[in-house]
Automatic annotation (TrEMBL):
Keyword Membrane: yes
Residue ranges, annotated region (Disordered): 42-79, 105-125
Keywords: Hydrolase, Membrane, Transmembrane, Transmembrane helix
Organism listed in the record: Streptomyces bauhiniae
Listed Pfam families: Sortase (PF04203)
GO terms for MF: hydrolase activity
UniProt cross-references to Gene3D superfamilies, sorted A to Z: Sortase
Membrane-spanning intervals of the chain: 21-42
Biased composition (Low complexity): 53-79
KW Hydrolase (keyword) present: yes
Matches recorded under InterPro entries: Sortase, Sortase_dom-sf, Sortase_F
Top-level lineage group: Bacteria
Protein name: Class F sortase
CDD domains to which the protein is assigned, alphabetical: Sortase_F
Amino acid sequence: MTGNERPEPTRAMDPGRRKRNVLAGAILALLVGGGLLVAVGLGEQQPSPPRAAPSSSTPAPDSPPSATSSTPSAEAMPASVPTHLTIPAIGVSTSLERLDLGAGRVMQPPKDPDKAGWFRKGPTPGTRGPAVLAGHVTWNQRKAVFFRLAQLKPGQDIQVARADGRTARFTVTRVAQYPKESFPSIEVYHNLDYAGLRLITCGGAYSGSRHSYSDNVVVYARLASRS
């Protein structure tokens, strides 16, 4: 920059956009770095988690609800911290930890392998945007809370109880499995004009030398009702 040049004025970032950037950046760093939801062990064989059902084509990103949508969407709810997750189809019933940013602004994984966690820098389940819940798939040679996550199917029910005493009920819209090295962060975490939910864990082949799985499983869901 020369002495005659003037720096461009700094533009204030929209708060919603800032939150989305934090969400995508923190989770992407964790996924790529291999720190999220990997099976902790010393190279021992881990149980093989189910794979997401294969698709004949790459699914398009979730789109806003329309009059012809087969998955109805309920009106978004006020913000409230999630406290419990229930997924009847795969036998999940767990309280929720609060996941924060750790060193390097990377999202911390759940401390308890039998519990899922909510990323508190993102939306709360039931509010507009992609709320994120994460959980381990295996832990020290045993199955963890999200071991069967890839078996979920479109149309199945996910229930999130909240601190305000209300329950947000979501319907699964699709399940996808992505190689970690090509994880589509924009597709997964892009802004939504409805209340969405993302459940994330590991999948694919386990590498004993790297103590990590090759893939990530992502369940996409949208708010169907509230009580």
